[in-house]
Structure formats: C-alpha cells, structure tokens
C-alpha cells in the first residue's frame, strides 16, 4: 500500500506524531494508501526549511532565471514521461474520468513550460528622470516575495497545484504546498519528479494533513511572506484574517455560482452541448461550473427537454474506463450534494432528471450522483444562491435583456459567466455588464495558461495563470541610480 509522506528540505518524512489517514478511491470506496497527518512540529520544520532555503542558502533565488527555467523544463519533460502514471493516479484518487485527468496533466506540463519561458523574458521598466536632484536612471526589477504557502483544493489536485507551483518557483520563491487532505496522491508523485529534476533542497516543501490546522498555521505564521489559496469562500475569508498578522501578500481563488445566459437566436444543440460541459465536466466539481442557466422564455421548453434527454443518456461508471461522468470525490461531498438536491425538491424546484445517487453495477460502493437538472427555479431558492459543487444545474427564465443581466449578477460570487447568442453586439454588451472575472461567448469552460484566472466579488482576489499569475509571486523593486556626480546642494552649511 502506498504511503504518502511529507517532503521537507529534500527528504521524505513521516509526521512527527506518526499518525496517518486513509486515502480512498471514490469510485469504489477502497483504501488506496495512507497519508501522513502533519502536526505543528511538521509545519514548523517545513517553514524553517523554506526560510533557510530562501534567506540563508538563497541557492534557488540567486540562480539565473535561465537556470531556474532549465529545471522547470526538466520537470515538464519528466512529467511528460510519467503522463500515463500521473493521469491514473489522479483518477484513482479524485474520481474524474481518465481522459479528464490526462487533459489536466497536459495542462500542468504546459504551465511549467509557459512559466519557464516567461521568467526569462524582459520585465520591469526603465526611466531617465530628473526631479531637481539631478539626473537619475530609474528602473524596476521583479523579485521573489520570499516564503510562499500554497493551499489547494481536491477538485483539480495536480493542475491547480501546478498553477501556483510553476509561477512561484519560476519567480525564485521557496514554497510550502498544502494540498487537500483527501487528494495528496498526484502531488506526491509531482514532488518525486521535483526531486529527480534537481530542485535544490528546501525550495519546495510538501506538508500533508488537515486543512484547518495546517492551513491556519501557514496563514498566521510571520515567517510566511505570501499565501495563495484556492478553495471555498469561508476558508478564504479566514485565511485573509489570519494573513493580516504580518500583512502577507495574498491571493484567493474562491467559489462560484456562475451564470450562462441563453438568447432565442442560438443553435439549441450547440448550447446544450456547451451547457453539459459547463456543469457535468469533473462531475460539476468545478469552481467555474455553469451552474445557473438563465434562458429566454421562448426557447425554455425546447432547450430543457433536450438538455434532460442528453443528460439522461450520460454514462456514469468506473472513471478508469472513461464514462461521461466519474465519481464524486468523497462520501462527504456526495452527502453534501444530495442534501442540496433534497433542499431543491423541498423548495419547489422541478427535478427534470437525476436527483439521486447512482449505484448500478460496479458503482455500488462508490460515490456517484446522476446528472441533475432543476427547472422553474427562483432567485430566493437555496440551490440558486449557494454553490453546490456537484452535477446539479438550476434553470431560470427571462423575458428582457435587462432582466437576464440582473438575474446573472444576483449572486455574491463573480467568478465566471457566459452568453449564448448569434448577435455579437448583444454578446459584448452583456459580457461588459457581467460582474465576473472569466467570461465566454458561445462556449463554456475553456481555460488556458495565457489567460488570467480569478474572480470578482466573493470569488476572490488576484489571478492565477498568465503574466498576472507570475506577478502574484513577485515584489517590484524601484532602483534609482544617480547619474549626477556633483553635490545635491540641498543645505546651506
Ligand atoms: P476547502 O476550502 O474546504 O479546502 C481547500 C484547501 O484549504 C484544502 O487544502 C483544505 O485542506 C484547506 N483548508 C481547509 N480549512 C482550512 C483553514 N481553516 N485554513 C486554511 N486552509 C484550510 O475547499 P475544497 O472543498 O477543497 O474545494 C472546493 C471549493 O474550492 C469550492 O468552493 C470551489 O469553488 C473552490 N475552488 C475554487 C477555484 C477557483 O479557481 N476559484 C478552483 C477550485 C476550487
């Protein structure tokens, strides 16, 4: 049985307490390994390791950008060699269909290459100035922030970790990664790759275990200079409060309840397909999931009938065999989703398909939920307001464009949103009104490393990916080089 350990200062270690927790395959409920359960001593030693690496040895941060890039390219190459293994590890631990894990691994490889390339490109600005003291050459440089704690969720265990690891390491920081307690498997494999690629000891540390304790300690530690977190909004809020202790640099990618607005001029078949990708990809456990469909009254019946027909035909099963939908990540998450489904029914939404656990054949002992569509939903319903994080979509209708925008923005979240229409001017008009960080026109969910990923309102602060994703892990230093050899002559004596 696999033992998932901490990786601190270049060594694999058990928790000081010796405690472990079972890691489960959500497709069959079986134990796939045991993960170490870290305590305060382990966290402190990970923080010390990162601190020594950054402030004392300085080996990683002092390397030339090109040398750091070479190590990141090597990581990408080793990941490419281990692509099949990484994908299977991810599916076994997380429950998503194998082809989705393969896409995640491809994305992660691409992200390492992107930041390896980006860090060697020119950055900063250069100015010739004269403010009365004489001529100055003033310029800016980007420097690493220092010790960075990265806390990640269970829905994309490898990919979201890499969205943070790649830019943080490219920038020259020393990091501590705290993955979700229940899905450590793929990042443990990734750290084995880090070791093989020759990352200097201490610049990348991994601590496994319970979120509240470890995450809380990392957030409040005065030895941690920056914290970035992807996860739920309430935990993000608590991290923000704790991070105030030493005014850490902070990045939060939080929850969502994202709308798709559908106008009558669309191709219904195409909109159905994208809506399915929007809500059923990764079993709906996607922060940007298109979990609210806001549709014009005139096409409501045709669209919902077709969406329900297609959702009913989706295959659910052993994720290794590539069904349309795999397993929910854990029994707890499945219970939570089923609770929301019951609330939806009680509050009067009409369940058009699904609405229950799936236990056929080899799914009997796993955690599966049928794709679920709730129709005739109203803004006051709990299932319309709260993030469910499962394969459950709610349908609302509108008559005018203004009404559609008002419904779409009627949420405390602001992560993503989409509009489906063949009228391009209308599409742009609507997109500009949406209070959301990631938007799509006539599609849903495509995501790529070049584009910044993050939300408005209670969906977060800052951005992963793209150039902005690198800046999350950098400070900007202003350097003023006085070119005037004479005295400033500021005082009379
Ligand atoms: P979560 O907030 O429960 O946990 C996320 C991480 O934080 C885990 O590593 C967890 O162990 C840790 N954690 C838990 N309590 C903590 C605490 N008190 N202090 C510090 N760390 C703590 O979220 P989850 O259930 O793993 O993931 C689902 C949530 O993540 C959803 O709300 C989803 O929308 C959000 N998410 C957002 C994005 C995005 O890019 N915006 C992406 C993926 C997931």
From TrEMBL:
The keyword Nuclease is annotated on this UniProt entry: no
UniProt-annotated catalytic positions: 253
Sequence ranges assigned to domain Aldehyde dehydrogenase in this UniProt record: 12-479
PROSITE patterns linked: ALDEHYDE_DEHYDR_CYS, ALDEHYDE_DEHYDR_GLU
Highest taxon of source: Bacteria
InterPro entries to which the protein is assigned, alphabetical: Ald_DH/histidinol_DH, Ald_DH_C, Ald_DH_CS_CYS, Ald_DH_CS_GLU, Ald_DH_N, Aldehyde_DH_dom
GO molecular function, one term: oxidoreductase activity, acting on the aldehyde or oxo group of donors, NAD or NADP as acceptor
Pfam name, any one: Aldedh
Keywords: Oxidoreductase
Stated family: Belongs to the aldehyde dehydrogenase family.
Record-given protein name: Aldehyde dehydrogenase family protein
């Amino acid at each position: 049985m696999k033992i998932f350990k901490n990786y601190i200062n270049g060594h694999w270690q058990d928790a000081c307490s010796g405690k472990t927790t079972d890691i489960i395959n959500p497709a069959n409920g079986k134990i796939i390994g045991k993960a170490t359960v870290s305590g305060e001593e382990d966290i402190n030693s990970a923080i010390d390791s990162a601190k020594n690496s950054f402030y004392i040895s300085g080996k990683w941060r002092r390397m030339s950008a090109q040398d750091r890039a070479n190590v990141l390219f090597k990581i990408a190459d080793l990941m490419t060699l281990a692509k099949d293994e990484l994908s299977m590890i991810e599916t076994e631990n997380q429950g998503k269909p194998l082809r989705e894990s393969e896409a995640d691994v491809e994305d992660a490889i691409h992200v390492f290459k992107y930041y390896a390339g980006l860090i060697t490109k020119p950055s900063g600005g250069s100015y010739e100035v004269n403010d009365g003291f004489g001529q100055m050459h003033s310029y800016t440089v980007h420097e690493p922030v220092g010790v960075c704690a990265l806390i990640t969720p269970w829905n994309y265990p490898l990919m979201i970790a890499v969205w943070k690891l790649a830019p943080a390491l490219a920038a020259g920081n020393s990091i501590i990664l705290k993955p979700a307690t229940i899905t450590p498997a793929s990042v443990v494999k990734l750290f084995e790759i880090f070791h093989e690629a020759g990352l200097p000891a201490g610049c990348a540390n991994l601590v496994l275990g319970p979120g509240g304790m470890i995450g809380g300690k990392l957030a409040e530690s005065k030895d941690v200079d920056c914290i970035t977190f992807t996860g739920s909004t309430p935990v993000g809020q608590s991290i923000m409060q704790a991070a105030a202790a030493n005014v850490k640099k902070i990045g939060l990618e939080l929850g969502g309840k994202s709308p798709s607005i559908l106008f009558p001029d669309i191709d219904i078949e195409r909109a159905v397909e994208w809506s399915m990708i929007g809500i059923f990809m990764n079993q709906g456990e996607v922060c940007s999931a298109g979990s609210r469909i806001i549709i014009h009254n005139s096409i409501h019946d045709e669209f919902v009938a077709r969406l329900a027909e297609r959702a009913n035909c989706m295959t659910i099963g052993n994720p290794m065999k590539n069904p349309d939908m795999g397993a929910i990540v854990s029994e707890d998450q499945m219970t939570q989703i089923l609770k929301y489904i019951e609330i939806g029914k009680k509050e009067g939404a009409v369940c058009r398909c699904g609405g229950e656990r799936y236990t056929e054949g080899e799914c009997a002992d796993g955690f599966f939920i049928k794709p679920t569509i709730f129709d005739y939903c109203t803004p006051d319903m709990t299932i319309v307001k709260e993030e469910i994080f499962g394969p459950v979509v709610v349908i609302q209708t509108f008559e005018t464009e203004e009404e559609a925008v008002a419904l779409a923005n009627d949420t405390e979240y602001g992560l993503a949103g989409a509009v489906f229409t063949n009228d391009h001017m209308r599409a742009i008009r609507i997109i500009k009104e949406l209070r959301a960080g990631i938007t799509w026109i006539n599609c849903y969910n495509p995501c790529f490393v070049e584009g910044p990923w993050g939300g408005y309102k209670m969906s977060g602060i800052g951005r992963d990916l793209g150039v902005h994703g690198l800046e999350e892990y950098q400070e900007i230093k202003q350097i003023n080089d006085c070119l005037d050899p004479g005295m400033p002559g500021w005082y009379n004596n």
